[in-house]
Amino acid sequence: MGDAEKIISELKKIDGKLLTAIEKILGKNPSKEQLLRFINSNEFNTLIEDLGLRKSLAQYISGFQFDYKGAATGFGAVELTAQRIAVINANLDLIKNSYGRTILGYYGAYTDLLKSKLTASIIEGVDARETIKRIVADTPLTTAQVGAVVNTSYADYSRAGVAKIYEDKPDQRFYYEGGVIPTSSDECKWLYENQNPEGYTKKEIDGGIITPFTHTSGLYIGEPKKIYWFGRQPNYNCRHEWFPVEARNAQ
User: Fold this and answer.
1) Spatial distance between the Cα atoms of 191 and 197, rounded to a whole number of angstroms
2) For residue 226, which of 64, 132, 144, 208 is within the disulfide window of CB 3.0 to 4.6 Å?
């Protein structure tokens, strides 16, 4: 089980605890007014916090590891000084903290959605059993959106580590890796299957690798879609990464 899968598994456990706690509350047959006040109180927020979400996320984020020393010396491309190592460490720590806040932000949004569903159920006069069914149908922590954020966060962390190692080597060549999954975009799939056998320089990747596809809406409408260091933009649920061609040739 990978790191992303581990945190999703933990979130599912917390979802289960949350549902059990709500079932116990509903089992006491509170009045609509009592339940409505409780859902929108600090006591309800405390209940959710006490389930251990922040602790699980802290462990997940602290577990982000990137063997930048091994990546650099293993490919024989970069000699890392103590100063460079310190800079890379500082940058990766900032990335860890940023992704931790991002995931907690999604958590907050979906717990607010949970409150809205419960509130709507109370107003509509839905009984306790039906309310639980509605919650189970879309639990707040393990939705597809949250899973995508978790997966993207881990991949971005790895991508950032490699980018920092080779930031002063614009001519270093890389190949695009990550396979094709059902949610792969057309441009990511195309580049993975049609990439230059010689790879692409960091300078080329920074400028964007042009694909045959065109933006049909938004700010870049009419312009070709490109693949950058972090994949397509936006890189929602993108798991592709760039690796030095030396790594591929050594396999």
Assistant:
1) 11
2) 208
Cα–Cα distance measured from residue 160 to residue 139, given in angstroms and rounded to the nearest whole number:
31
CA–CA distance, 205 with 59 (Å, rounded to integer): 33
DSSP 51: T
With contact defined as beta carbons under 8 Å apart, do 68 and 80 qualify? yes
Q: Which residues pair with 232 in a beta bridge?
A: 227
Distance, in Å, from the CA atom of 52 to the CA atom of 43, rounded to the nearest integer, reads: 15
241, containing H or E segment = strand 241-244
* Domain boundaries defined on the chain: 3-162, 170-249
Q: Which tens digits make up the pLDDT trace of 78-122? A: 667 777 777 777 777 777 777 777 777 766 676 777 777 777 777
CA angle centred on 69, ends 68 and 70, rounded to 5°: 90
CB count, 10 Å around CB of 157? 19
pTM, full prediction: 0.64
Q: How far apart are CA 167 and CA 170, in angstroms?
A: 7
Sheet strands (E) in 32-172: none
Strand partners, 227: 209, 232
- Distances in whole angstroms, Cα of residue 50 to Cα of each of 32, 46, 55, 247: 24, 6, 10, 45
Q: How many CA atoms lie within 13 A of 223 on its CB side?
A: 11
